[in-house]
Please model this.
Amino acid sequence: MPSMPPRSHSWMSQRNDSRAPVNPEKLHIWSPRPGARPKLSRSATDGTNGTGHKVSFSGSSKSSDERAPAINGSSRSSSPHTSSSQKQWNENRNWQKINRRSEALWKETIPQSEVPQARPFLIYHDSFLPLLGPSPTLQLLIHDPRAPFFHEAGVFHAPSNTLFVTSNQIPDPSPDAVTTQNKTIVITKVEFFGPTDFQRDKVRCPERNYMANGGTNFRDGLILCAQGSKTEPSGLIYMEAKRPHKTTTLINNYHSRPFNSPNDVVVHSDGSIWFTDPIYGYEQGFRPKPQLPQLVYRFNPLTGDIRVMADGFGRPNGICFSPDEQTVYITDTDYIHGDGSTDGTRAATIYAYSILYDPVTNSPFLATRRVFAYADTGAPDGIKCDVDGNVYAGCGDGINVWNSGGMLIGKILIEGGCANFCFGRDGEMWCFGEHKLWRVKLGDDTKGALLGI
Model:
């Protein structure tokens, strides 16, 4: 999804279009049984974890009654979300040049997390129930009103139990940010020691990672989409998951023609890298005029081969494969443009393509483009499959879930919507709501197809 202008950090909060949010209590859907309506799960409606035990939202092992020491003599209590990471930053300030304004944001106190919203699971079909498990929960792990640190990417690095997230655009008055219209994007990593026991830190990448957006797992680290700047090229970079997070540029042009602003990326089991390339960077003022259409590419890092796989989009955005890799899903978020304007008559669509192979060269190509689903609220941004082939997408009202046939079977309602998300272990998901990081716990057997854990 595009990184929105600072004045309106997220398209998900814009509710002044004709497609107003639906009140789940009044929602009626078609059913062969007269008068049927979606079921609302009663789990997580009272601040519990479904077993009668109160859920802890603390960012460390301390209880909610324990307070960290105040910062700079302030009488306010410092959140455990930042106390340990602040110490690490001070000890490692010489890793590379850092943005002082962004660092200052992190020095301030982070408010305590709020309680979870009530009745977050909307059931359209009984096939959604096994995915939820016996006690699904929605927990707010972090609420940081100072900046939209939780926007895109969403890469879970299992060996280190670490989640990487990119922010939305943050104002940056430093001279180094002139070529990005005085905006910057921050990469956050959250290292988990337990479901709600974690340490939050900031990743300092070399300067080639301009305006990072989508990401995915790759080898022992991760790939990030670098949207570029007025002077720096856009493309794909590989970043090591461990400090000092060294980076390597994988590709930054299509046969010498610059990409627009790569948005999302996924890796096939054959090692090829597929990514989308809309023009959001140009529309938001930090990329030059486009020299290519808005396309979907396949890049082979072993041979250097770069190919166009699909065109004809309004704004190609999220991308993922089905578990058997016979289908690729691509979202089109033409519903919203880079300036934040929306139009309900434009695409908010998930397209499905069949992946076929040339009988002579065994090279893949796409066929039978078809509409898989259309989001009823906002636009489908980040997209993932689970191991059973169900399709999840971040939309204006949270996570929407369709079965492999394109039938909407359920929603995870998240206040303010959810641009992107990723799976963890055993039914765990993290959902990104700009200023908020949410944790969703589904059934233990609900696993993301990307990692299968």
